Amino acid sequence: MQSIKTMLKGLTHEDIRQWAGSKIFNRGKDYVASVSGLSRTEDGTLVAWVSGTDEYATSVRRNDEGDFDYGCTCPYDGWGPCKHVVAVLLAVARELERKRDIPLLDPDDDLYLEAFDDFPEDDDWADDEDDDDFDADDSPRPAVRGRAPQIEAILAAKSRDELQALLIDLAVDFPEVNRRIRELAQLETGQVDKLVRALQKEIRNLTAQDAWFNPWKDEGNLPDYSHVEEQLQTLLDNGHADEVFALGEELWELGSTQVEESQDEGDTALAIASCLEIVLQALPRTSLAPSGQLLWLVEHEIADEFALLNGADVFLNDRRYTEDHWREAATGLQQRLQKIALPQSGRFTETYHREKLVTWLCSAYQRSGEPQKVIPLLEEEADRCRSYDALVKALLEVGERDQARQWCIRGFKQTVSDAPGIASGLQKRLRQMAEEEGRFDLSAAYRADDFFDQPSVSAYDKLRQASERVGVWSAVRKGGLDYLQTGRRPVAGGKGEAGWPLSEPEVKKPEAKGKIRGASFPDSEMLIEIAILEERHDDAVAIYQELAKSKRWSWSIDEKLAQTVHATHPDIALQIWKSIVDRLIGQVKPKAYEEAAGYLRKMHTVYGQTGCLADWKALIARLRVEHKAKRRLMEVLNGLENR
Question: In the chain, what are the domain boundaries?
């Protein structure tokens, strides 16, 4: 186990402030003196009493990801940690600075019991109906109930008549017990039809309910499918797979509609999915032919819009289904495909289900030992469903690279105007093929097209890497920077150093007319970002100063530039941060004041590094005078000056 010192290594007061927020941090500082009994557990959790209105047991631990796990018995219910948690962290930091050890906490200590013992140690705590914190959903489906030794001992001491009387009383007082006894009797006497009818009625009643939940008010109506799930499992365990399957089909149809109309953050969908998991287990045991089982699974997987059949793939990959079974299923899928009307356009809404059916038919061909049917099917459907990528992938898998290239080009031309996402994917595939074939000049040409279409630092850097590989980066870099200045793409075939050395790619995105996605030229912000990338700080500052005259730029570039050049151009960084601080204070919001404080701290650091702390103090004084009526801002400034 790592030591407390190692666990908290590198953690600063500023880190705690950023995590907890300045308000909670400042309050926590006031409570450090109220921390007592500071100790640690075996896993490195820090625990202490913190005195306030009452005495609270507070715990906090830094996990492997560097985040904090914490708890406190105080009534604070806001987002994030309370002031007592911050106080414990600050108290630990103080002890470590004084080189004092943090003692190990005895599990029998009152502090340990208060902080961690949420449940009594009695073996029957899980049976306490008043325990709202116990989550029965922690495991997928507890099929076997645990034994209760104390209950067994009590019942063993009773006579037959006493047990019978007890059960009768329980059945009278508790409807669930009554129903359980009757259901077991029906099952034992072969009256399965009565069980099925009752369960069918329950499913219809549950699926007819409005499913909703408001987490803010902690109220709503969530249909309880636990009894349905239990009964489906009981029927399956007793060999009634066909009945389970029939009930599951009805639950699927009615439940899908209910989930579509629900407003409950997915709770109802999860409950129905748990029931349908049992239906999936029943399917292979039904009287339905194996090929029919496969068709049912595929059809429902295609129609499953709410992930109600998440486990279907496990059954589809079951080895019990042979090539012959899949061949019969493929015939059925072919017939279904022929019955679907051809899409009138390539719109997603028209092609979605057809494309999924084609995908499953291809899979059925592969599983049935008929892979030769896959490519002809995909060629027939490519233009209809715009499923060019699936066809290209299949062609590449069998080594037909030329055909794959031609389909990429054809698909790009068919989709570039109204389905640019598909077109972009096909262009990416062409670039990857060029790289695999060692045609690095063509790969660089595609990278250039990406950059001109959507200029970004990432696209620029990838263009650099590709161009350096073929030794033309100097000319490409000049062409790229000129484009950001003028908006004119370089022309291939130029001569000399100033010429554009890359050829035209096989397919190319069309140039947008006028402004590109709202951008104008020169694209000063992108030029600044590239200058920062290339560590040309003087150039970045010069471009920024010209940009500032236009009064049209995003605040994000200000922050990025200031953070980058605060060591080389502190005056520019301070100027930017000062503008951001004024803008945030102008919002007149406590949250904005806290954000402004972060920039003021950065300014304090730079002023200190340049020997100008007097200027920082003058800035704080100015803010106090100009905004003296803003009480919350004054509190933030007090925190900055440790008042």
Answer: 4-116, 203-414, 438-511, 518-554, 566-640
